[in-house]
Amino acid sequence: MSATRKPSPKGKGSQTREQTADAKPTDSAARSKPAPSSEISPGLILVATPIGNAADITLRALDTLRQAHVIACEDTRVSRKLLTLHGIATPTLSYHEHNAARMRPRILERLRQGEAVALVSDAGMPLISDPGFGLVRACLDEGFPVTVIPGASASLAALVLSGLPSDRFLFAGFPPAKTAARRTFFEDLKDTGASLIFYESSRRLAASLEDMAAVLGPRQAAVAREITKLYEEVRRGPLAELADAYGRDGPPKGELVIVVAPPQPDDGRTQDHQVRELLDLALGEHSLRDAADAVSRITGTSRRKVYDLALTLSGRKPGGSPREDGQ
């Protein structure tokens, strides 16, 4: 397992998103085209903001945030720090998952009045594991222009830092908090032929990595922490080793992104061979049901699959319920 750290450049600040002013918002058919002047057009503008270093915001984003009639923020207190740093006094309003149903009609009414509304989240691109999809959908349904000012994204930054394949990738957001649901979540992604990108809280990191190792198998992975900040760090290594390291060291500080390599062509055959070997050993010391339970738990393979293989190895016909055998 390896770890790299890199100090961030000057300008470290709050986490927020950026937006621009030179692009004409797309119409409901989702087309976009540059405006002839620097003045922004009416409509909803999705503005990316920095993910850690306040200097990572585009000139277009700053121009747009200055010219917008109002800025809809995930948290106005977080956004105000970035706006103050850059001398932007545009009015703000709160828009997040808990007040979206109440605030969405108000924003739509502003758009009907011909205003330009900028949407930002606390950090990175709006709508990426952040609120905003419902607002964009409502704008498109009513025919209001929607455009984007691209910029920082923690998921993409972690991917390119990871050293893992970047030609195909899937962003899967936050895994479920409970172990059983989390393992089912990973099981659904197990055969995806692409690098997997997850967000995770620091307190659940070790448990989540352990579940990934059990379900996804012995894959390479990277955990990126505090990207673009002073204590940026990337740990790389097999999932099991990363799980052990964070379990031993305790929850790390800061925002986290996990990137997991895609399955190798023979991953399935390798794991089947491992399950068979473990079952051979377990069946020599335990009942069929207990052996299947133990191997399923160790390898992350579905209990039904392990039980059927145990029946085959013991010379019995697969297809019965694991609970029917008490031997």
Question: What does this molecule look like?
Answer:
The chain contains 11 helices and 13 strands. With 327 residues, the protein is an alpha/beta fold. The longest helix has 17 residues, at 267-283.
Q: Could you tell me the radius of gyration in angstroms? A: 24 Å
Number of domains: 3
**Span of the ends, CA to CA:** 42 Å
Overall shape = elongated
Series of secondary-structure elements, N-terminal to C-terminal: EEEEHEHEHEHEHEHEHEEHEHHH
Uncertain residue ranges: 7-37, 321-327
Largest sheet: 6 strands, mixed
What is the name of the CATH class of the largest domain?
Alpha Beta
Number of strands: 13
Number of continuous helical runs: 11
Overall helicity: 25-40%
